[in-house]
Design a protein that fits this description.
Chain lengths: 489, 443
Amino acid sequence: MRYHQAVHEVPTLFESCERPTSREKFDPTLGGMLPKDVVRSELDIPDLPERDVIKHFINLSQMNFGVDNGMYPLGSCTMKYNPKICDDIVSWPSVADIHPLQDISTIQGALRLMHELEKMLCEVGGVDAVTLQPAAGAAGEFTGVHIVRAYHEAKGETRKEIVLPDTAHGTNPASAAMVGYDVLDLPSKDGCVDVEALKAAISKDTAAFMLTNPNTLGLFEKNVKEIAGILHDAGALLYYDGANLNAIMGKTSPGKMDFDIVHFNLHKTFATPHGGGGPGAGPVGVKKRLEEFLPVPRIIEKNGIYSLDSDRPRSIGKVRAFFGNYAVLVRAYAYIKMLGGKGLVSASENAVLNSNYLKERLKGDFELPYAELRKHEFVLSGAALKKKGLRTVDFAKRLLDYGFHAPTVYFPLIVDEAIMIEPTESESKETLDRFVEACEAILKEEPKLLHDAPVNTARRRLDEAKAARDMIFSWRAYKKKTEQGSRPS
Amino acid sequence: MPLSECSLEMLQQMKLKSVDELFADIPKDVRIDGLRLPDGLSEIDLRRELESMMSANRPASSMPNFLGAGIYNHFIPAAVRTIVSRSEFITSYTPYQPEISQGMLQSLFEYQSFMAELTAMDVVNSSMYDASTALGEAVLMSHRISGGDRFLLSRAVSPEKKIVARTYAKGADIKLEEVAFDPATGLVDLNDLKSKMTETVSGFYFETPNFFGPIETRWEEIRRIVGAKTLVIGVNPMALALLRPPGEMGADIVIGDAQVFGTPMNLGGPTIGVFGCKQEHVRKMPGRIIGMTNDLEGRTSYCMTLQTREQHIRRSKATSNICTNEALLAVAAAAYLAIVGKSGLREIARRNVENMRSLSKRIGSIKGFKAPHFEAAHFNEFVVSSDHSPEKIHKELLRNGVQGGLQLASAFPELRHSSLYCTTEMHSKADHDKLVSALEAVR
């Protein structure tokens, strides 16, 4: 066990020593330029030396674990390596210092890039048109479900329900509900869609079925064509959650599987860095008959000149201001250009190879519910740990001590004590072997070591109940609480 | 592409002949044979190709740009880039494992702290996508707080925000209605607000400074008229260096965009939606919230909290579907505010106000121009009206290498002779001179 994360005591910026500043009382009206009744009296933010601010954040960064630190097998999150050239490009003034409302003759490069990215995503997704506007995967779902609603309304139908398998990501039901739909959960059979149950569940009230393929267990839904037929015969649409697209590029496509609407997670499949929780980008692709519903504006190309079309009466409107997360789009564009068609196929092949290799090596150590062959990820059950008085969470926390980020745990919900592992194509065999060795070593350890884990990270386990109870979400709140005399222990 | 030796070794260990066997579960009728995309480029070729493509853009450094309208060109200290360039921040995921993610969690807590102080709100979450989606979520949250199937918003709001808010409102079958602005001051028309503020309304949204630049003065009367319903106030966080915070105006919810703190314009994205509320509403709030706690050894620590509001727990009953947000930009905002500090922030804000006053005065003294169009105090944006058509002015400016203000005609027919200008600390006197002489030359 060689890993040890840096441990710094970093007081918040609000507790740090301030630099000397003018003692002159500040006049927020700026000598009468602003009326007295609209200005503030207090502003409690610190004045710090730049040197100390850099030290503060660099030390904090050392207490954070990213893909660049080590393996990050977080299932369904596709934590692959992020090529550095992509970050470099978005720092160019010609890329970063442009305003969305500039005369379009002065942003032709940006429009061209986005137009070409749309076409590339059409090819990968097997769809006819793509919007780049949604800011994240969930925003893509929100967009897609709005398109579902607009499609049915245009036909004069009000369908009330969206059907989902019980393996679905939590964002799926949340997005459906936000667009005004009731959600019907469909129990799976052998980890996949139960086609008979689906037939029974579909009615004239069904607006769409949302599906991830391969699903969150890493299983390919072989009956997808039949599923599409069932939905289409009922006048409903089939929605593809693109969280797991990294498994199938160039092997199949959502369009080929007869999905009508697809979202892409550029921060997963197309290697844009996740930034500790964003920015992401969640473009949405559709088949021809749904193109008229896409958000405005659409980027139009004519003889090499790019323009914007907002005159689309059936459009769902907009889901985000301006063009979406453009700097993320630029990174994804650069990634696709650098890998090329063959490189993307190879990425999927290696992602699936790595996943199956890991699964083969770990299935003797853990229970592997459902079928054998997986795509880019697989889900083990940590249920056997219970015999030792342990749970999946203890195993996950102990992995941190070995210098591996934990897998996704307790999801999907249909696997008891789930451990969801997605190695991605980025990791070498050597790293995968070390991961297996770590897992096997942990299983042989005294339960107490797992209970007490992690010990090599910047912090030990947290009292999360206290966080919810104390509700200290800011320095202001902390100060208020301490001033009231009930200093949080 | 041929497999590497290690890959072949893995296949052998699995007793497989080729990687194709791993895709045997994909039925033939849905197979495709590769992708029709060009072969990959080397880093040097990619750079060359993109440099050429992007040379068709005209960045602010090559053309003075007077656009604002939600996206602002502010100075970004080099130290901010140093901080947000750290791999450990950039390449991490949402901090699901807090023990190994304290760096991101504490930075986000500090972002929340800065924004809570600037807005004087009890809680600010760790970010939404942008201001427009934050407004959409605020409409939904107002409905959760106050019921009602109508939501009022000031007409003096960006068309981009309105159209996005409408998409969010549609899902919940909430009707959005506009409240007029006073044609002289650009501020909320209180009589119109009063007449529309009925029992079926969930809340009201106004901005200060609003889309046209005027700073609202009658916030007490607005709060009184809104009564027990939800009051949502939109802010420019940069202006809060000087202006009365919405928490002191009785806001239930505050939204805005913190792109002004350390994030480039990026053609409008990514930016960072600010979302704050009163403590009593926190369980109805969307988005991730970071809370302070202790670890086993009693050390101060941070983690995501109140997650039972969120989609991965509550699914269709969640307060929002939001998952990925704009965390790295929140780190940038915290880093920016720490670097410039209180005095730096006030100084930047002062320069914005001074630039606005000096530029509007100069434009207003050109024959045939009026600036600012509205009689009110402004921060860094103002409407210019003119006898010349805004379209013609825009073309003349562009010909002279200046990006003028946003023409208001299409979204606001009543302001068809007007454009919205913005000036920040980024503009030099030479930039102002260039704009003014180009405007003087318009015939």
